[in-house]
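>> Question from a student workshop board

For tomorrow's exercise we were told to take the sequence and the ligand below, predict the bound structure, and bring the output to class. My setup keeps failing. Could a helper post the expected result so I can at least see what it should look like? The ligand is adenosine-5'-triphosphate.
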Amino acid sequence: MIKISGLIKRFEDTEALTSLTMKVNKGSIYGLLGSNGAGKTTLLKTLAGIYQEDEGEVQISEEPVFENESLKQRLIMVPDTLYFFPGFTVEEMADFYRKIYHRWTEERYRQLESVFGISRQQKIQKLSKGMQRQVAFWLSLSVMPDIMILDEPLDGLDSVMRQKVKNLLVQDVAEREMTIIISSHNLREMEDFCDHVGILHQGKLLLEKDLDELKKDIHKIQIAFKETPPEEMFQKMNILHTEKRGSVHLMIIRGVKEKLIEEFKAFQPVIVDILPLTLEEIFIYEMGDHAYEVDQVIFA
Ligand SMILES: Nc1ncnc2c1ncn2[C@@H]1O[C@H](COP(=O)(O)OP(=O)(O)OP(=O)(O)O)[C@@H](O)[C@H]1O
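>> Workshop helper replied:
Here is what the output should look like for this input. Compare the format with yours to find the bug.
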């Protein structure tokens, strides 16, 4: 379990993280979304123990992360800007990882060699940017981490490789209960991958959601009545958004689907359609006052 409470991180006169609190469960894939400068990298680096918090607490398994050598054996960060020693081959870099990380697993390293199809003798800096990213995943997964902290890791990978990497990560989550915290600008990219999403804005979490719960409880309903039901019926429902096109009401409603349909049926509607709702729509309707910021994150 990862627990962050009241985290403040400052850089001279900038407060990059402002009293931030969040929790990530073991075996979860947590997507951290936010526009440029929201504080994603700062949060991830603090979580990885690269930055020290100015105030508040950052704990993994109830231990503070900063300067915690044994905890750092169990976590690995793939940063947005990768670093490899100049002139090193994949094998030489792997040797460095072997010496540092006690949980390095040779079998995994060999198995992933065939997945990525890159030669171990290849000089890393001569590889393309996307291929260097693949090497970063290859080495990081060979460490068998409990926690992977990924800063916009899919940028620069082609769509086939994106899917391949996502599959590898999900496999480790399923088999070993690895926990992933992954930052992105793109909600669409995270939708099918994460089970939790947090939206960071100006150093604060605006919203934190379990995606399954979120999708379960919110519906887009298109409905038309022969006779308009009394206003009180709509008033007692948790309607987030409503529009009327001729005699058709289009509503975004929170609640249990079957119960909502039941309530409407009492008024003999002539049409009742439950339409699929995208995560983008859910976030926008959910956010109310912060819709603008969410809009920026989603469409950035
Ligand atoms: N090393 C630093 N020195 C000074 N200010 C910094 C430093 N790192 C980050 N900041 C500031 O902290 C704030 C958050 O930056 P951060 O890099 O964490 O955002 P981000 O969400 O990762 O952005 P992006 O999506 O553009 O990568 C910004 O205002 C940035 O200017």
